[in-house]
Design brief:
Length: 384
Amino acid sequence: MGYMETSNHGSLYWFGLALLDKDFKIYLKKKCYYNRYPAMEYLARKKVFSDITNRMRRTFPKQFNFAPISFLVPEHCEELETYMSAHPNFFWIGKPSCGRGGEGIMLLQKYNDIPKNLLTNQEKDLLVQRYVKNPLLIEGKKFDLRLYVLVKGYDPIEAYIANEGLARLCTEKYRQPTKENMKNMFMHLTNFSLNKNSENFIAPTENFLEDDIGSKRLMTSLWKGLEEQGYDVAKVKEKITDTVRKTIITLEPYLLYNYHSKVDTEHQEAKNFHILGIDILLDKKLNAWLMEINANPSLCMFIEKDPIPGEPEPDKILSDLDRFVKTKVIGEAIKIVSGQGNDDYDGTYEKILPVEDGSFDCYYIWNRATELFELMISCGKQTD
């Protein structure tokens, strides 16, 4: 990508994981760019993010219903049990809050399906989310989309969505969940980390641009296939963009607070950015459901199956598809953030926030609270 790694003289700091206390000494160097927002990893935890999206849903019930109904365990056990009893035909997905790659995920139908040790364990919390049972299918298989979203700056936070991403397919034909198949994770979970170990997994080939038939595909290949089937792809993209905008707006007050408290109360010369992985599931009505956000989306360009005990280590295979997508995502993000390379910017990203016509301004809770606070101060001064 034309960048050189250096130990102490660079203008871009790339942190591989969440920021630690010692990292903020580096963070205060105003002339550098940083690929992390303070507390983003915490906010992206399934349980935490579900909690704050539920708050927005309560405030804007019609506009912020883009995530499946969810409950936190053990905090909301009583409400969950009541809801599950009232809807015995619903299926649910239980996700460990800090889990990755499908680890620990389970399908549930009854409250008693939840392991008892999780109902009271504060350290091993669980997000229980309603299962979207009518997903849009590709070749009879369930899939999701891994979108890459660049966020940068403060006041306002800017957001850009990449026009290329990944479609990740299950490796077994989809059937609506039943007691008999609810443990078949290759049918119900789209996680690449899980499906790469299936005997039915098809690795992307070097000819993915012309013949994209693998279990992981280009998002643009998906759009082409949907157009051929008569779907209104422009409308689908519009719904996805709406979901992503509201997702970032949901995070905004918490990002502002953490930057205020840890870095700079005035947001002056903020040069941080973050590449998020946002997972979207489309249903048959082409609704764009937010499944989760990832503060550390995999940027790995290799496919490596998990080792089987007692057998040789599996080969690590370079994925040309992953290299193609992720190189563009990272390289073009740095050009946008730094303001360099405008002449050769290839349009990988589309700016989606702030919305110029002001149609989303009413959702900015931080701004509304600030205005209210300033109004209260001015009223107090008039009274004095």
